[in-house]
Amino acid sequence: MTDSLLPQPSPPLILIADDEKMMRNLxxxxxxxxxxxxxxxxxxxxxxxxxxxxxxxxVLLDAIMPGMDxxxxxxxxxxxxxxxxxxxxxxxxxxxxxxxxxxxDAGAADYVTKPIHWPVLRQRVxxxxxxxxxxxxxxxxxxxxxRLASLDGLTGLANRxxxxxxxxxxxxRGVREGWNTTEAPQLSLIxxxxxxxxxxxxxxxxxxxxxxxxxxxxxxxxxxxxPADLVARYGGEEFIVILPNxxxxxxxxxxxxxxxxMRTCAISHAASVVxxxxxxxxxVSSVVPTSESSQTxxxxxxxxxxxxxKTSGRDRAVFQSPDLSE
Length: 326
Ligand code: GH3
Ligand code: MG
Fold this sequence. Notes:
Keywords: Phosphoprotein. This protein is α/β, with parallel strands linked by helices.
C-alpha cells in the first residue's frame, strides 16, 4: 500500500472567536495557510457551544467581545471536561499586566497582543499543538503503564496489588451502598490453591508448571464472569476471586463450578496424591461489608477455610465465616 492510500490523520481544528470580522478573516487565513481546519465564531456564547461540540485542538480567543468577554469564556471552557488541557490562546489589544494576569488566571495557555505579529502567532500555535500531541502520547503511555502495573505477567490476571485496590474499592462501595440493608448480600472471596503443585513441577518441569497455572487462570476467569467479579493471582500457585454483592450460597455455587470446570479440563497430574488430574482446594468466605467488619478478617477466614479444605482431603471447597467477635 502506498502512503497516499493510508488514512491520513485529519489536520488540527482551530476554533477562532472574535467579534471583528476583519480580524476573524485574517486569523482564518493565517491558520488555513498552515494547513489547519478552522471554525470561527463571533461571540463568547457561540465559542462555548462550538468548544463543547467540536472539541478543537487549540482556541484563539479575543479577550474583548460584546456580551461574554474572553476571560469569562476561557474560565467556562476550562471547567467543562475533566482533565481537559486544550490550549486557549488569548488575543487582545490589552497588554496591561492586569489583563495578562487575568488571562492566565482564567486558564489561558498563552497570550498575544494586537496588532498581531503573524510569524510569532504561527510559532505559538505550532508549539501549543506540539504540546497537545506530546501530552496525549504521555497520557497513553501512562495508561498503558498503569494497565501493565496491575497485571500478572504469567497469567494476564490482575496481580496482588490490583487485588488489594479492588477489594478496598468494593468494600467501600458495599459499606456506602448498604448492601446489608436489604437481603444482606455480601462480599465473598474464594481463595484457590493448586493441590500438590510442587509435585507437578517436579514431575513435568517448571515450564509445564507455568502452563498449568495459565490454564487454571483461564478456568477461574471462565467461571467468575460477572462484570464486577475479579480474578487475581494472589501468590505463586494461589489465586483469589472477589465476588462483590454475592452471598455465601452464591460464592459456594461459583466455587463448585470451579471444581467442576477443573474436572472437565482434566489436566493430567500423575504424581498427585489426590487424583490423576490437577485439582484445586478452595477457601470461601463472605461478609456484609460494614465499617466495623474488616477485610483482614475476611481474608483470614478464607485462608482458614482453605486450610480446612487442604487438611480434609483437597479437591474441595470449604466455607468459613469471619469471626467478627475478635
Ligand atoms: P498443597 O497441595 O498442600 O498446596 O501442596 P503444593 O505442592 O501445591 O504446595 P507447596 O506450597 O508445597 O508448593 C507450591 C509450589 O508452587 C512450589 C513452587 O515452586 C510452585 N510455584 C509457585 N509459583 C510458581 C510459578 O509461577 N510457576 C511454577 N511453575 N511453579 C510455581
Ligand atoms: Mg498448593
